[in-house]
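Dear H.,

Thanks for agreeing to be a second pair of eyes. The structure we're designing against is below in C-alpha cell form, covering all 923 positions.
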C-alpha cells in the first residue's frame, strides 16, 4: 500500500489516494513533528517542545505515547513504513519522496543542477506540491517559526523559477505573478528586479523605468539606502538599450501550457471518485487505442469542477506536456454557452499558434489542434459542458492524451459514441459532509457545538457549495456561536426550491439568502447587479460602472462579496460568480430593483466598455476618425490606457466581455451601442486573426441596425463584415458587403466612410490580381482625404500606393508616395504607420540598388515593429533585409538575418516558416 504525507498545506495523509483520519489537532502536530525529520529520530523532549512549547502538560510523556499509539493505528501498514522507537527517540520510517516537503526540496536540488528547460519543469513540479500555507490547520510557536522558514524557501524557489523563465523568454507569462509578488514584497530587490526586467522585455520600457524610480525613492525614504548594485546595473542597461537584456530565443513547441485554474483551497471527501479517476486515467492510451475520457456529472453546486481540478493538479506529473482548460459556460444564466469555435481557438492560442497561421473554419482549426497535441501526454479539462456537440470538436485524436469533462447533463452521446467513462457525483454522505465542515471550521469549534453542527449539516443537505457558504459565514464571525448561525438559517422559510434546469438544489436558496441578508446594503445591491449583468467575468471598473460607483468605492464591496463566497476573484482584479448564485442574484434583482434601474445599470456598463474601447481603438490605429459618441451615463467609469501596449493588454483581458457586450446590445435593441462596440473591436480582432469573432460582432450589429433603420450604423456594420469575410478568403461575399457599405456612405454623404470602403476595395482587387484597379481605389480615397485635410488617412493611402507600385517593379514611382507617408506618420507620432512606410520605402531603395539607405530604413522599421509588438511584420521586414544583403553580396549577413526571421516565424507557428527554412537549406 502506498502512503503519502503532506505538510505543505493542511497536515494530511493518503493511503492509495484515500484520505486518512489523523485525529485531533495535537495528534496531527505530533505527526508533523516527525514528518519534518522523517527517517531521523526525534526525542520525547523535542516532541514535547514542538507540540506544547513552554507550556507542556504535567504528563506530557504519557500523552505523547498515547498520540503515537493512535497514529500507528491510524496509518495503514506499508512496506517498511511505521513509527518506530529508537535509542534517540521516535522516528517515522518512510521514504523521503512520500513526504511533500522532502520531495519539494529534492526537486529543487535537481532543478538547480539541470539546464533551463528541464529546470523549468522541475520547479513547476516542486511548487505544484504546495496546497496552501504549511500546517494550515495547526498553530503553535514551533510551527509558526518553521512555517516562516518554509515560506522563505518557497519564495526563494519561486524566484529561482522566475530567473529560469526569464532566461527562456517567458517574460510575458510572468508579469501578473511578478506584479502581485512585488506588491507583497515591496522592498525585495530581487523580486523588483525581475518585474522591471519582465516589463522591459514586454515592450513596457517607460513603466520599467518608472518602477525603478519608485523603488529608488522607497528605499531612500524607508531604509535610507540606494538600490543595490544588481538593480543599478539593470537600470543602466535599460537606459543604454543594452542588447544583452534581450531574452533567449525559444524554439517552436517549447511552450508547455499550464492552463489549470488554482486548485480548490480546502478539498475534502470524494475518495471513491478520486480512486475511480486514478484507475481510469492512470495510463492513457495503453489499454486501448483510443483517448481516455472521463465525464463527471451532477447538479450545480455539487463540486464537479473542484473534483476535476483537485485530481488534475494532483496528477500533473502524469501529463508532462501540459494541461489545457476551458470553461464552456454550458449553463450560464446570463450568457450563451461558449461555441466550439471559440474554445478551439483558445486552445490554439495556448499552444502558441500565431493568428496568421490559424486556418479558417472549425473543422480545419480542430484538425490543427489535434495535430499539435498528437503524441503528447496532455490533460484536457472541459468544464461545464452543455452537450456532446459542444465537446466533440475539442477531443484530441491521440491516445496519449486524456480528457476530463464536467457537465450537469449525462452526455450519453459522449459515453456511447466516444467511450467516455461516466462518474456521477452526488451530495456528500453525512460523514463526508461533517468532514468537510470540520476541515473548514476546525475540529475544536465543530466538537464544541454538536447540536448546532447537526442542524447546519441538515440544512445544507450535503451540497458542497452550501457547506462552503455556511463555513465562510461562520469564519467571518469567529465570535458567533454556531448555534446562532444555525438558528438564523432555520428561521429562513424559503425551504427547498428549484433554481436551474429543473434540478432540486436542496436548501440552497435558503443558504444563499442567509449569506445575502448578512451583506451591507451597498454590497447586496452590487451582488444583485452583478447577477443581472451580461458576460462571465468583470473587472473593477466595469463593476464600478454597473453600480455607479468609483473604482475606489467598489473595491471594498467586491472584497466583502469575495469573503462571503458570493463572488470569486478568478484572476487578480477580475470577478466571476457561480451560475447558481447568478440565478439567485437575478431573482433578487427582479424583486428589489425596478426594471428602469436595472436598465440604467446595463447602459452604464455598456458605456464603460464602449468609451474605453473607443479610446483603445484610436491608440491602435491613429488613422481612424473618432466616432461621435453620446455622453456616457452618469456614474460610468472608464479605464485609462496610456499607450499601445496597455491598449492591447486591455483588449486581451476584456475580449470575451466585449463580445458579450455586442451580443447583449444587439439582443436588447441598443443598436447604436451594438455597431459602435463592433467598430471599436475591428482593428484588435483583425490583428489577432480572430476573424470569426469579427464577423460575429458585425453580424450582430448589422441585424439590429437594419431592424432599427439606422443607416449609418448599417453602413459601418457592412464595412466591418466585409473585412472579416475577405480575411477568411470569402472575397465575393466581402465584395457584396463592401458595395452595400459604399452605396450607403455615398447616400449619407460620409466621405470618411467612403475612403475606408475604397481601402477595402483596393485590398480586394490587389488579392484578386488587379493591381491597377487597386491603385485606382487608393488614389480615389487619397484625393478625398487630402480635400478634407485628414493627414492620418492620407498617410495610410500614400503608403498603400507606394507599396503596390514597388511590388509591381515601379520602384522610382513608389519612392515619393512612401516618403510622404513616412513624413506624415512622423509628424503624427504614429509608430506603426512609420514602421510600415519605412519598410515600403526601403523595399523600393533595395530594388534600385541603394543598399545603404535601404539598410537604415529596414532597421528602423524592425525597431518600430518591435516597439509596438507586431512580431509578424518584424519577421516580414527581416526577410526583406535578408534579401537585400543577399542582393548586395553579403551572404553571411543575409543568412544570419533570415535566420532571425525564421526564429520569429517558428515562434509564431507561421506557415511561411516552412518556405523560409527550405530556402535557407537550399542556400
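And this is the sequence the design step returned. I haven't edited it by hand at all.
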Amino acid at each position: 500500500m502506498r502512503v503519502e504525507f503532506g505538510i505543505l498545506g493542511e497536515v494530511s495523509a493518503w493511503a492509495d489516494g484515500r484520505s486518512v483520519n489523523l485525529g485531533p489537532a495535537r495528534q496531527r502536530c505530533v505527526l508533523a513533528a516527525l514528518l519534518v525529520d522523517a527517517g531521523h529520530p526525534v526525542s520525547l523532549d523535542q516532541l514535547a517542545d514542538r507540540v506544547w512549547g513552554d507550556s507542556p502538560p504535567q504528563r506530557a510523556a504519557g500523552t505523547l505515547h498515547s498520540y503515537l499509539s493512535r497514529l500507528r493505528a491510524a496509518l495503514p501498514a506499508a512496506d517498511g513504513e511505521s513509527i518506530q522507537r529508537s535509542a534517540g527517540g521516535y522516528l517515522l520510517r518512510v521514504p523521503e519522496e512520500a513526504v511533500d516537503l522532502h520531495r519539494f526540496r529534492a526537486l529543487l536540488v535537481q532543478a538547480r543542477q539541470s539546464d533551463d528547460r528541464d529546470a523549468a519543469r522541475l520547479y513547476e513540479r516542486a511548487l505544484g506540491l504546495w496546497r496552501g500555507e504549511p500546517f494550515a490547520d495547526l498553530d503553535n510557536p514551533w510551527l509558526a517559526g518553521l512555517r516562516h522558514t518554509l515560506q522563505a524557501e518557497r519564495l526563494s524557489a519561486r524566484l529561482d523559477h522566475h530567473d529560469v523563465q526569464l532566461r527562456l523568454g517567458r517574460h510575458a507569462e510572468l508579469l501578473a505573478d511578478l506584479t502581485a509578488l512585488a506588491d507583497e514584497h515591496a522592498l525585495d530587490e530581487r523580486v523588483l528586479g525581475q518585474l522591471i526586467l519582465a516589463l522591459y522585455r514586454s515592450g513596457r520600457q517607460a513603466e520599467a523605468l518608472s518602477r525603478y524610480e519608485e523603488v529608488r525613492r522607497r528605499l531612500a525614504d524607508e531604509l535610507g539606502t540606494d538600490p543595490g548594485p544588481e538593480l543599478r546595473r539593470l537600470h543602466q542597461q535599460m537606459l543604454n538599450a543594452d542588447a544583452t537584456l534581450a531574452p533567449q530565443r525559444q524554439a517552436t513547441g517549447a511552450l508547455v501550457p499550464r492552463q489549470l485554474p488554482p486548485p480548490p483551497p480546502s478539498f475534502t471527501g470524494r475518495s471513491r471518485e478520486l480512486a475511480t479517476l486514478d484507475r481510469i486515467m492512470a495510463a492513457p492510451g495503453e489499454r486501448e487505442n483510443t483517448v481516455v475520457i472521463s465525464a463527471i456529472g451532477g447538479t450545480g453546486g455539487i463540486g464537479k469542477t473542484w473534483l476535476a481540478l483537485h485530481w488534475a493538479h494532483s496528477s500533473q506529473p502524469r501529463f508532462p506536456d501540459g494541461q489545457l482548460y476551458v470553461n464552456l459556460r454550458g449553463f450560464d444564466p446570463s450568457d450563451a454557452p461558449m461555441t466550439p469555435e471559440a474554445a478551439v481557438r483558445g486552445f490554439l492560442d495556448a499552444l502558441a499558434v500565431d493568428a496568421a497561421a490559424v486556418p479558417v473554419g472549425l473543422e480545419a482549426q480542430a484538425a490543427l489542434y489535434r495535430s499539435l497535441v498528437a503524441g503528447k501526454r496532455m490533460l484536457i479539462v472541459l468544464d461545464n459542458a452543455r452537450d456532446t456537440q459542444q465537446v466533440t470538436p475539442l477531443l484530441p485524436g491521440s491516445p496519449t492524451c486524456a480528457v476530463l469533462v464536467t457537465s450537469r447533463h449525462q452526455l450519453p452521446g459522449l459515453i456511447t459514441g466516444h467511450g467516455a467513462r461516466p462518474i456521477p457525483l452526488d451530495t456528500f454522505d453525512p460523514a463526508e459532509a461533517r468532514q468537510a465542515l470540520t476541515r473548514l471550521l476546525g475540529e475544536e469549534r465543530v466538537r464544541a457545538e454538536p447540536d448546532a453542527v447537526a442542524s447546519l449539516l441538515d440544512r445544507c443537505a450535503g451540497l458542497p457549495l452550501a457547506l462552503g457558504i455556511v463555513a465562510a459565514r461562520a469564519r467571518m464571525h469567529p465570535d458567533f456561536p454556531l448555534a446562532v448561525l444555525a438558528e438564523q438559517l432555520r428561521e429562513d422559510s424559503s425551504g427547498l426550491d428549484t433554481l436551474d434546469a429543473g434540478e432540486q438544489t436542496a436548501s440552497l436558496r435558503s443558504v444563499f439568502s442567509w449569506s445575502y441578508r448578512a451583506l451591507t446594503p451597498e454590497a447586496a445591491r452590487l451582488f444583485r447587479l452583478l447577477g443581472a449583468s451580461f458576460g462571465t467575468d468583470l473587472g473593477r471598473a466595469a463593476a464600478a460602472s454597473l453600480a455607479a460607483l468609483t473604482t475606489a468605492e467598489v473595491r471594498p464591496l467586491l472584497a466583502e462579496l469575495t469573503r462571503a463566497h458570493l463572488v470569486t476573484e478568478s484572476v487578480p482584479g477580475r470577478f466571476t460568480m457561480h451560475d447558481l448564485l447568478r440565478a439567485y442574484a437575478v431573482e433578487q434583482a427582479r424583486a428589489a430593483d425596478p426594471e428602469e434601474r436595472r436598465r440604467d445599470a446595463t447602459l452604464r456598463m455598456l458605456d464603460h466598455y464602449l468609451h474605453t474601447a473607443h479610446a483603445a481603438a484610436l491608440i491602435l490605429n491613429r488613422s481612424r476618425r473618432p466616432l461621435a459618441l453620446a455622453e456616457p451615463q452618469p456614474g460610468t467609469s472608464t479605464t485609462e490606457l496610456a499607450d499601445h501596449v496597455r491598449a492591447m493588454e486591455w483588449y486581451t483581458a476584456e475580449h470575451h466581455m466585449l463580445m458579450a457586450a455586442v451580443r447583449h446590445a444587439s439582443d436588447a435593441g441598443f443598436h447604436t451601442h451594438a455597431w459602435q462596440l463592433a467598430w471599436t473591436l475591428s482593428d484588435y480582432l483583425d490583428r489577432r486573426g480572430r476573424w470569426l469573432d469579427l464577423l460575429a460582432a458585425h453580424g450582430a450589429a448589422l441585424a439590429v441596425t437594419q431592424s432599427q433603420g439606422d443607416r449609418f450604423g448599417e453602413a459601418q456594420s457592412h464595412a466591418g463584415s466585409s473585412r472579416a469575410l475577405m480575411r477568411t478568403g470569402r472575397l465575393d461575399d466581402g465584395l457584396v458587403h463592401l458595395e452595400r457599405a459604399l452605396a450607403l456612405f455615398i447616400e449619407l454623404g460620409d466621405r470618411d466612410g467612403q475612403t475606408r470602403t475604397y481601402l477595402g476595395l483596393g485590398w480586394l482587387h490587389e488579392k484578386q490580381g488587379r493591381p491597377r484597379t487597386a491603385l485606382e481605389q487608393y488614389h480615389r480615397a487619397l484625393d478625398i482625404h487630402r480635400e478634407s485635410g485628414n493627414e492620418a488617412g492620407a498617410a495610410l493611402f500614400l503608403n498603400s500606393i507606394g507599396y503596390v507600385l514597388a511590388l509591381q517593379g515601379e520602384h522610382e514611382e513608389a519612392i515619393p508616395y512612401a516618403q510622404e507617408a513616412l513624413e506624415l506618420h512622423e509628424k503624427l507620432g504614429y509608430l506603426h504607420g512609420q514602421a510600415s512606410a519605412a519598410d515600403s520605402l526601403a523595399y523600393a531603395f533595395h530594388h534600385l540598388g541603394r543598399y545603404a539607405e535601404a539598410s537604415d530604413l529596414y532597421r528602423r522599421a524592425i525597431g518600430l515593429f518591435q516597439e509596438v509588438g507586431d512580431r509578424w511584420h518584424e519577421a516580414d521586414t527581416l526577410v526583406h533585409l535578408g534579401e537585400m544583403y543577399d542582393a548586395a553580396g553579403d551572404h553571411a549577413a543575409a543568412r544570419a538575418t533570415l535566420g532571425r526571421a525564421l526564429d520569429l516565424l517558428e515562434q509564431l507557428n507561421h506557415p511561411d516558416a516552412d518556405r523560409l527554412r527550405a530556402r535557407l537549406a537550399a542556400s
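Two observations from my side: The longest strand covers residues 379-385. The domain at 1-168 is CATH 1.10.10.10 (Arc Repressor Mutant, subunit A).

Warmly,
E.
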